[in-house]
Amino acid sequence: MRIARFSHGETVSFGAVGGEPDDLSVVPLDGHPFGQLTPAGMPVKLSEVRLLAPVLPSKVVAIGRNYADHAKEMGGDVPEVPVVFLKPSTSVVGPGEAIRYPEISNEVSYEAELAVVIGRLCRQVPVEKVPEVVLGYTCANDVTARDLQRAEAQWGRAKGFDTFCPLGPWVVTDVDPADLRVTCTVDGEVRQDGRTSQMVRSVAELVAHVSEAMTLLPGDVILTGTPAGVGPLRPGDSVTVEIEGIGSLTNEVVSRG
Which residues form a coiled coil (predicted)? Predict the structure, then answer.
């Protein structure tokens, strides 16, 4: 199932997306997607609604250098334990929303990533139990002010600007995350092209590791790392993250004004 969050008129709802690729529609759901899913209205053409970030997480937990080739291009080895950092909830935006280029940075970069969406409150989750706490998966762009990342020991500012965590277009609940193609294109040019099978640590290992330290709430998001090929963005660019079996997420880059 594809679960979207969308606005239609003055109403914001969750909905189930279905139909043919060239004729998609969304059926509103009663309440939120973390319990029983109940249709609550007639289908609406997807072209008539505005897709929003599919969830509003209390926190976005991100993993650094989880692809060996990316670790190498960043000048380091794969870390012995996962590198965990947080992106604030205020960094989250949805499909079609602008990524705003900070005035204090001259080197903003894209990072295409598979995002895990947590489906229920959990902590200290064993690896074998992780599928029970995952609602599904979506596309993410871990936008980064690379010059600030190099200059500061902590990555909070470099990764945490408003608009630096696009998510979408929806959450897919029935996809196997083990071997999905992950690409990033900028103005139609492919910049990243990898597969989730190249991750050093699997989705289950990452969720278990994070949940050892903190309670995860429904709607929380875990970013699983990015393949090699990261590079710069400039105002005016259009950047698209696409993940096999999930969909594509496109955002424009604009000057912060």
Answer: none
